[in-house]
UniProtKB/TrEMBL annotation:
Listed name of the protein: Tagatose-6-phosphate kinase
The UniProt record lists the keyword DNA repair: no
Taxonomic source organism: Zhenhengia yiwuensis
Coiled-coil regions, chain positions: none
Pathway of action: Carbohydrate metabolism; D-tagatose 6-phosphate degradation; D-glyceraldehyde 3-phosphate and glycerone phosphate from D-tagatose 6-phosphate: step 1/2
Top enzyme category: transferase
A biological process term (GO) from this entry: carbohydrate catabolic process
Length: 300
């Protein structure tokens, strides 16, 4: 079974504003609301690809209610814990030539809330996958992901972490099955600017030396690099197409990769499915559908 955790899910409010004026009164020409948060996006894409999974995490308030309604509508299996106080966040995605994002803070979460989540995870068995994706609320200890990976990796559960900076670095000694920084996040860890596959490879290997079993580095329109636990380095060129909304492309890539790996057991196929899922989402307004992903996969 695959479980995704989204500690701080969101409603993504995507607005298009022509000629956005800072400090001025702007009106949007288009607006959409999507359910969001990295783990939830992974669950949505896995479901689209016919891979059984369950989305876990915390919701609160009227926005939390809408998150649950949208997950039900998408027929994604979920078991979110409802917090008594606060409201799930609204993340603003402003499209005006460039993409600008303002991600909300979210409700107040405490360590005691995490205990309930850990109890839900006790049912996991060896061979299951646990996907930890996105930022964690500022009220939780910064070692939250680290503690979860430490506990569950040692039980033979394949942990996948999509996070940034210390949140990512600190899980490495506990042998996560996969991490997926993008090339900017990877460069940030080493105070470097990485622009090509060749530049990315040695730094991806450094994260592997620190303990990650497999390192997938996404590079937006430039494709991706994968360093696998059997010592292979695989690269994939970027896929050409018209980008409509790249929010969720990274999450789609993680989901596609895991779906491809689960079905084939082959890293090359997994990378191809990850690429197809990431790019199919970048080429759509919302997350891509299973059909769009498979159609792109067959063209690669
Ligand atoms: N501009 C783009 N053109 C084509 N594919 C894209 C583009 N942006 C993202 N993708 C696809 O989505 C994947 C993840 O995107 P990326 O932006 O690197 O991740 P993140 O959203 O985590 O920053 C890429 O490896 C690629 O497959
Ligand atoms: O948890 P964070 O880091 O604030 O990110 C949450 C945001 O990330 C997303 O999951 C999209 O992530 P990606 O574009 O990196 O795939 C949005 O749906 C959500 O608003």
């Amino acid at each position: 079974m695959i479980y995704t955790i989204t500690l701080n899910p969101s409603l993504d409010y995507v607005v298009r504003v022509n000629d956005f004026q800072v400090g001025g009164m702007n009106r949007c020409s288009e607006e959409q609301i999507y359910v969001g948060g990295k783990g939830i996006n992974v669950s949505l894409i896995l479901h689209q690809l016919g891979i059984e999974n369950e989305a876990l995490g915390f919701v609160a308030g009227f926005t939390g209610g809408e998150i649950i309604r949208l997950l039900d509508k998408a027929q994604v299996k979920h078991n979110f814990i409802t917090l008594k106080e606060g409201m799930s966040r609204i993340n603003m995605k402003l499209k005006s030539g460039e993409e600008t994002e303002i991600n909300g803070r979210g409700p107040y979460l405490e360590v005691k809330d995490l205990i309930e989540l850990e109890q839900q995870l006790e049912c996991m068995k060896e061979g299951d996958f646990l996907i930890l994706a996105g930022s964690i609320p500022s009220t939780l200890p910064s070692d939250t992901y680290e503690q979860l990976v430490k506990k569950f990796s040692s039980r033979g559960i394949a942990c996948i972490v999509d996070a940034t900076k210390d949140l990512l670095l600190n899980v490495l000694p506990y042998g996560p099955f996969l991490i997926k920084p993008n090339h900017h996040e990877l460069g940030e860890l080493f105070d470097m600017e990485l622009k090509t596959h060749e530049e990315v490879i040695p730094y991806a290997k450094k994260l592997q030396e620190k303990g990650a079993r497999n390192v997938l580095v996404s590079m937006a329109g430039l494709g991706a690099v994968l360093v696998t636990e059997d010592g292979t380095v695989l690269t994939h060129e970027g896929i050409d197409g018209k980008v409509k909304n790249s929010v969720g492309a990274g999450d789609s890539m993680v989901a596609g990769f895991i779906a491809g790996y689960k079905v084939s057991g082959d890293f090359k196929e997994a990378l191809k499915m990850g690429m197809a899922a990431g790019s199919a989402t970048a080429f759509e307004e919302d997350l891509a559908t299973g059909e769009q992903i498979k159609s792109l996969f067959h063209k690669l």
